[in-house]
Amino acid sequence: MSAPRTATVLVSCPDRPGLVAALAQLLYGHGANILAADQHTDTEAGHFFQRIHFDLTGLHTDRHALETAIGEVAGRFEMRWRIAYGDRLPRMAIFVSRTDHCLYDLLLRHRADELPCEIALIVSNHDRLAGVAEQFGTPYHVFPITPETKAEQEKAELELLERSEIDLIVLARYMQVLSGDFIGHYPARIINIHHSFLPAFAGGRPYHQAYLRGVKRIGATAHYATTDLDDGPIIDQDVVRVTHRDSPADLVRKGRDVERLVLSRAVRAHLEDRILVFENKTVVFD
Amino acid sequence: MSAPRTATVLVSCPDRPGLVAALAQLLYGHGANILAADQHTDTEAGHFFQRIHFDLTGLHTDRHALETAIGEVAGRFEMRWRIAYGDRLPRMAIFVSRTDHCLYDLLLRHRADELPCEIALIVSNHDRLAGVAEQFGTPYHVFPITPETKAEQEKAELELLERSEIDLIVLARYMQVLSGDFIGHYPARIINIHHSFLPAFAGGRPYHQAYLRGVKRIGATAHYATTDLDDGPIIDQDVVRVTHRDSPADLVRKGRDVERLVLSRAVRAHLEDRILVFENKTVVFD
Amino acid sequence: MSAPRTATVLVSCPDRPGLVAALAQLLYGHGANILAADQHTDTEAGHFFQRIHFDLTGLHTDRHALETAIGEVAGRFEMRWRIAYGDRLPRMAIFVSRTDHCLYDLLLRHRADELPCEIALIVSNHDRLAGVAEQFGTPYHVFPITPETKAEQEKAELELLERSEIDLIVLARYMQVLSGDFIGHYPARIINIHHSFLPAFAGGRPYHQAYLRGVKRIGATAHYATTDLDDGPIIDQDVVRVTHRDSPADLVRKGRDVERLVLSRAVRAHLEDRILVFENKTVVFD
Amino acid sequence: MSAPRTATVLVSCPDRPGLVAALAQLLYGHGANILAADQHTDTEAGHFFQRIHFDLTGLHTDRHALETAIGEVAGRFEMRWRIAYGDRLPRMAIFVSRTDHCLYDLLLRHRADELPCEIALIVSNHDRLAGVAEQFGTPYHVFPITPETKAEQEKAELELLERSEIDLIVLARYMQVLSGDFIGHYPARIINIHHSFLPAFAGGRPYHQAYLRGVKRIGATAHYATTDLDDGPIIDQDVVRVTHRDSPADLVRKGRDVERLVLSRAVRAHLEDRILVFENKTVVFD
Hints:
In chain A, 34% of the residues lie in helices and 29% in strands. Chain A is of the alpha/beta class.
């Protein structure tokens, strides 16, 4: 978990010699002590990815100077980069509809200190789960959606999200399709849980599809939402064993456990700044 | 594992009261002692499935009388049924192309007494794996296939299989598509291993497809071959975790382990008479 | 899930021919329609186990007559048996201390209709989780335990449990050791979750033990409580992957997920009358 | 897999600022291009671990100069370190007794290019598996062991191993206990597969122990051999699900699959220089 006096830099760029040394030297020079680092080179694409988590306690300079220095190195190597500080918790919004298991799971994990964020608010197209929100003292905003009101309601949602300085949106079994415009405001910052092992059974009623096909494993997939429905970069997946004894209702029940696990792992990875997106795929550092 | 003086009956029929009692009473009346029984009712389809494994040592009558009696009960309840005796090992043919890991796996498991069958012969469209067959003393038959010779060669293969009294054909990474006519000779008696988690990545080069999509689990699927390619009744499936670090070659390597496990479990279940097929799905008793 | 007009019989006895036929015939004779049946013969011990789930809708007689008839067959075959009716939900008590994840999990699964029971009450040696109980409208009883008061408090607990007609006690991370006397009142009716892969790391602080040993998987074990601490019949187990990166705190976090899954699966199996205990081992039908 | 013109450095030392920069700078200065790097800090022990895999193609200097430079940095930071070059395959010896499944698995994986090593020879206390060795063209040496001859035979084995320049010994179900003296010659270079989920069921006949205890998962553990039997640093573990239906023979059968997977993963990790040992635990980089 992130501690107050730490920071994490995420970097990606075309692979080139000297990258690792340049960043390590820079941080050392500023008095930042590397606590963990992970890197990956996609040799097919010739692309380099790195995550560096470091301690700021001994910083000789200040954050502004550090960021300026990183920016200079980044310019030299054509890096895309971002930095997150441990003393600024990201702010999360959870979108739900009628199903509560993923919502409860996120709220409970947050309370158990598993998710380093503030759960700023919950958005729903129904008032059904308002009681759950209340139990955890989290603001609950209802935006009913019809084909006619959708554009307008999304606009209102976006205003709320912006006003609340939301960093991450989690679609915890939110049953509305977000518009491309909405998604465009939060690139790689909206995580959805799809209740199937994508790309199998994309679209609606995946457990029913799985039942009809007679599969022997069902799964769940957490991915970043993109304008291509069910086709965004996959963050995490898992499956559970099913047999001929399982009815469609059993698949739904067993699926809930996988959904919870996969969604919470993906959200946690995002909050710990362990994910980089590249060409519709993710690098997820351990 | 099946012992010489045992038999197994597999039964399926529309569900109706008295089914279980009728069969249990019949077997008891003939002096057959039930060792294991498993049943399943598909409540949506209203269909009943049962497997009874029993000891013949105390049989008052003979096999003919027993089968006649079962046939009578079966007629009364519109049952489809079949019986297998432990003193008659099923005869298996393995079809391969150039890849040897599934072939080795089946041969070694057979030698370790994991697969209750005789491996009568190996068929291939290449001579490449002849040496493996030789090591295990198994006849190896080469039938090169071209679009022109396919029909003729399949005919020759069918003659060989019939002459060799083959009960089960295992496609252990056999890279030729069998004709509908060929498959029709062995309904629910041809097991194929597909190197993906079907229905995801059906068709060719599934590991490459999986790599491009950026999935976090890859899998394998054992299914009965039908005329709908990659769409037959699924017998078993499993997956293994992959990460951004895995190249297409790594997926192939990790996939081999899953293919081996899934294929051998499916073959073993078939040989132990634990599988019933119903409407493109399988009931696989434990 | 159990429906009102169904019943389940669990039977175990020395193996003998005719057992299956006798019970199937009996049920058929009374007009009970078998919906599911599963049986197992422990060939080493020569012992037979069966679970029969049946529909009472067409019963010609009544429950008393049915039970009398089963009792007669049971006497003939030296069977231990019990019957459970779908219209009488078992009553469960949950024992907790300070940790809430298993408690929440059981309460939420119950509300999602995953656990066919009434959660009659919660017992704790602390008042800490009273708020959780209140959210779900479940009575919460506090019995503080000291070495001096233990005997007396257990007596009071037993009175409460008896008065509340409790069928099953679930120790959901209850951190007090129950006396042999207490356990003797509920043989094979107290389920405990141990946060390790027993028999590894029995005793206290299992995650810390696991961390020190450097294992690469940690697990959880649900078992019936017996007077031999951590040594009762195992109902279910599972593990999760850990690495050198995981601190003791990470093990605790990852372990919570396994504990929840394993405990809820075990409780569900018990409530569905799918477990038989024999010589410190369990038969758990699917 | 390691390519000819690459090298891997493994480093461990007390944690201190500047470590990462010092090594990265050094390699960059010599013209070595980092392909992959992974690091870990054990914050409890205050110890730092790193693996750097790099390309030597652009080396300005030579290997001697590079090693001298690393040695200097290592001295400054009290590092333990070693380097391995991709153009020098490690040489492996496999020790077996009567069981062949792990031996076959290693030989087949080696032939499928999964294990970057030379399998120099096989040692056994029996002649039983000589035929397998012959099939793969691998020298097979028999050293029968009795209590009287053990010391002498181990001496002969050590001479053979030294003469053959063996880097890694794999005990692939070798049923003799090696002496402390023998093990002392190959610290952290002898990998054993134990057929249980250690520390559960240490000692003999683990599957039988597991059967008697009635566990619901069985496992296997690959670990470095130390003088404390079954107590060396764990490299990898895994489990498989078992049920009441599984006889001791079934546990042995299911266990073979886990043994194969776990042992081969551990051997592969060692051969790819991804393992560091510290205080009876391992750091295994992905």
